[in-house]
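Hi R.,

Here's the chain you asked about this morning:
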Amino acid sequence: MHVRGACLAAARAPCSPSRGRRSGTGLIGAMLLPAQPRNDTSRMETFKRWEPVQGIEWPCAGVEISNVTDGLTMRLEFSKVVGGAHRDLLLRFPWGCVVAFPRRALTRRCRMPDPFILDIWRFVRGDTEPREFEQWLYARTNELENCLGAQKALDVLSADYGASAAVADVRKILRAFAEQASSSLRCRCVTLANVAVVEMGSAGDEVLGTIEERRSRGEPWWWLWCGECSRCGQWWLVGQEERQNDFFCLRRLDADEVNDLLQNNVWPSDFDSYESLLRLGHDAGVMFRFADPEQASSLQWTIVDLAKAKPGIRVAELASLLNLEPDTARMLAERAIRDNGVTIQLD
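And here is the predicted structure, written out as tokens:
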């Protein structure tokens, strides 16, 4: 098999980086200090040069290096990948490993917003508590006024962050600003909450259009996969709820979770049950009804699967999860009990 395009690689090394660079020839070197007590700095490794290896035709074409508290995170971009089996490319080094994936084409990474804009987005999308954000704002009044103007900055700073209506108004003001400041971004990842619900269709296409599937969980979790944004490199756990309401559930993954998933096949458990997807959709207000639920085979399959995953589930719970009238839910539950031998508690 020949794969020509690009290869992205991520590595975590159990050491502390003291220096990193990219040479003019495209090779990458890093000076690494092995993990050790703070008072022992006598051991120092020399530069590691990442030369072309088997399966990689050209040297490293680009690199991103992140200094984290417990090690070194690297992301490499290669111009071509040739040969090799139809599986993930694994490069091993004495101090760690690199997991690489073939790409259709080398993609230029988009520039991420500055930290101020990122913190604004965390609040706007609901990942920062209002009172915590209020304290953050008070320490940045001058920057806020420069960005928003005097009147809007005053509205944001004087809002009651204990009142939900006031918080909603502040989020509306800041979302407009954040969208404008992020207009050059080529993906929507920064705008998504750490756990997000995105409806299928045009909205889903805009978000999922840049997230490329890397792993599928497989049976019995047929709805579950993980992917990486081809623009910003953010990894997501993705659950597809396509039987009832047609939406995606996304959960942002950090570097440790991605490493554990790829190397040890340890998946975050957030979307392990189909019920969890239905509940997230319900809480987000994404709920639809079948015109003729008695004839909807996918609805019957979902009831059976929910009952198998949670024996003794109540009819009222099924009605809530599936947006059914109580009488309809009871009729479908009785059918599932009769035809599929599942256990459902009839209210």
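One quick note: Residues 278 and 321 are 6 Å apart (CA to CA).

Cheers,
M.
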